[in-house]
Amino acid sequence: MNARIEDYALIGDEQAAALVGKDGSIDWLCLPRFDSGACFARLLGDEDHGSWRIAPKDADVCTRRAYRSETLVLDTEWETDDGTVRVTDLMPQRERAPDLVRIVEGVSGRVTVRSTLRLRFDYGSITPWVRRSDGHRVAVAGPDSAWLRSEPPVHTWGEDFGTHAEFTVAEGERVAFVLTWHPSHEKRPPLIDPYEALESSVTDWRRWARQCTYDGPYRDAVVRSLITLKALTYAPTGGIVAAATTSLPEKPGGVRNWDYRYCWLRDSTLTLGALLSMGFEEEAGAWRDWLLRAVAGNPADLQIMYGVAGERRLGETELPWLPGFAGSSPVRTGNGAVDQLQLDVYGEVMDSLSLARAAGLPTKPHMWALQRSLMTFLETAWRQPDEGLWEVRGGRRQFVHSKVMVWVAADRAVTTLERHPELRGDLEGWRTLRDEVHREVCEKGFDPDRNTFTQYYGSRELDAALLLIPRVGFLPPDDPRVVGTVDAIRAELGQGGFLRRYDTEDSVVDGLPGGEGAFLACSFWLADALHLTGRTKEARELFDRLVGLCNDVGLLAEEYDPVHGCQLGNFPQAFSHIGLVNTALTLYGDDEAG
Fold it and tell me: Whole-angstrom Cα distance, residue 4 to residue 381?
């Protein structure tokens, strides 16, 4: 098993995604959707749980690898005693069925290459029956079927419940493999030309990336983050998953292993802002429309997350046959936090829709009616304790960040009516609510002795989410309470120059054993807050260190372990890449960005 999360690169077709290791092995792939069962699950187990490795015979990790400029097409090269060989991996945009394309090309000399395909459906639990048909290898088990072919054809054989091939490529020679999934009860989908798929993928990605309006420092990192967000978008609906994986640990050997292959409302405002600021109005509009469809219904039933098509039932299940990455168990699918009450999501939805309206995205007939309904619910529900932004499992509390986001909901409702008096709404009632929430937070959520806001009413604990107070407009950046909060969080939650979400070691709040690494999104928020409070030089130094945590192909996981120098958590993480994009805009957008 690859020892580090950052050893992986991402490929995908905006409906599913695969992780490719430095050894040329694809160790994670769920088909046909991000949240489907994995047919390659070695990432969370071993070779018996499914993988597909293509590499020179007897070779270990690659010599070098990189994405082709401004694309999601990955080139991996090995230099051997016999010559150099390149493997190009991609998942072309699908017309009907998902295809995984792997093109082996001789760069110099003559190199013998091995391909070892072990398909295991349903997260490595089912070994399919494999047969030959029309020169292809066909794997079938229950509802799943996959076809393997090569161009030009190479000899394959079955051994140890895998499909193997060995062949030699000389300089300029190419062999393309295509693995195609489809429901087993349907006919094989039309064949694609792998070489045409490569050319069109490169062209399409570069055409898309050219829309980016940012031209400031760290542009390559910004564009790579935007491409990653695009890759995590489920194209049919516009929903953006939090990550491509489940159960990558927040602490090796620990139990903080969650399924992130769903769409979180908490990400909505920051995602929408990043897309709109960078010139991607089509993607922003699709995300806004997904949001409207997902949250439609009784406001009391608003969830914190949904499936890629807006599904609500995401029940959490453990997979005991998978030992987990680095022995981190349990491995989970689904996410039990879906049933939590998190009042902050009402603020995030209201803020997102307000931002979309202000940016000029075409409004929907029912949008304001939905917003009014959300506000009607909040007028009485806002006093309830909740589980908070971080989905703690230690019981509900009066979390300060949640109350701040209730204030955001009321504030955005008020400002929308002030700017659009033609809309109907309880303007005075919402102003009163806004003032009442603000007053209570400042009285009950602030520790005057330490000059800092706290994690929840009456506590001494801190929460990195409080760094968003000036960003959302709850208080101005130069307010002494804001400066004090930034300083206190930096001092008490700092870890190796980065930032933890909150104290997981000694806190009773989250109800789970063990700790976690520095949370990258929070560390980007710290850079934003330092800039807003007049410490731009420190902010830019922190941002430079954060960008330096990207792996060799520009990807970030959820967290970072400063002690062992490795990434932690699900990968790649949309929240981390959203943070990178937004902080680049905060630090450089006004004076150096295009």
Answer: 44
Structure tokens at 13: 């077709």
Query: How far is residue 407's CA from residue 471's CA, in Å, rounded to a whole number?
Result: 13
Distance of alpha carbon 101 from alpha carbon 149, whole angstroms:
10
**Residue 190: phi, psi to the nearest 5?**
-60, 145
Give the pLDDT confidence of 362-396 residue by residue, as tens digits: 998 899 999 999 999 999 999 999 999 998 888 99
What burial class does residue 280 get, using C-beta atoms within 10 Å of its C-beta: 0-12 exposed, 13-18 middle, 19+ buried?
Answer: buried
The CA distances from residue 448 to 343, 352, 399, 404, 452, in Å, are: 25, 32, 17, 18, 7
Q: How many residues does the chain have?
A: 594
Q: What is the CA radius of gyration of the chain?
A: 25
Residue at token pair 């959203």: 578
What is this structure's pTM? 0.96
Position 548 scores a pLDDT of: 98
The predicted-structure confidence for 459-488, as pLDDT tens digits, reads as follows 999 999 999 999 999 999 999 999 999 999
Closest by CA position to 509, among listed 393, 398, 336, 385: 393
Cβ(87)–Cβ(54) under 8 Å? yes
Mean of pLDDT over the chain: 95
Q: How far is CA 267 from CA 218, 244, 270, 347, 363, in A?
A: 23, 15, 6, 12, 21
* pLDDT, mean of residues 425-439: 98
Please name every residue paired with 80 in a beta bridge, in sequence order, or none if there are none.
Answer: 83
The first and second tokens of residue 408, run together, are 């955001």
Could you count the other beta carbons within 10 Å of the beta carbon of residue 255? Answer: 16
Q: Could you list the beta-strand ranges (E) of 184-279.
A: 233-234, 239-240, 263-264
- Smallest CA-to-CA distance from 15 within 82, 89, 83, 96 is with 96
Q: Which of 535, 524, 533 is nearest to 583 (CA)?
A: 524
Per-residue confidence (pLDDT) for residue 506, from 0 to 100:
67
**Digit-coded pLDDT (tens) for 576-594:** 999 999 999 999 986 533 2
CA distance 134 to 120: 23
The reported pLDDT for the residue numbered 594 is 25
Q: Are 147 and 179 in contact (CB under 8 A)?
A: yes
Which residues are bridge partners to 67 per DSSP?
74
pLDDT digits (tens, 9 = 90+) for 14-32: 999 999 999 999 999 999 9
